[in-house]
Amino acid sequence: MLAARERGLGTCWTIGHLAYEREMAELLGIPFDTTVQVALTPVAYTIGTDFKPAPRATDRNFTHWNNW
Length: 68
Fold this sequence. Notes:
Blueprint: H1 2-6, E1 9-11, H2 21-28, E2 43-45
Antiparallel strand pairs: 1-2
């Protein structure tokens, strides 16, 4: 993903196809019985070059230690 970004390409992980994992395996030529799909990574040229870090939640929102 970093190498793609360096070349002006955008990428992201997608998992929406997993609801149709068998059909996607057939379409993409992936052996369904022996290979587990985790994510697809679409790659495309982006519109513009004004990239900035995405907003991120603090770790306190989702990390817990010895309590919930």
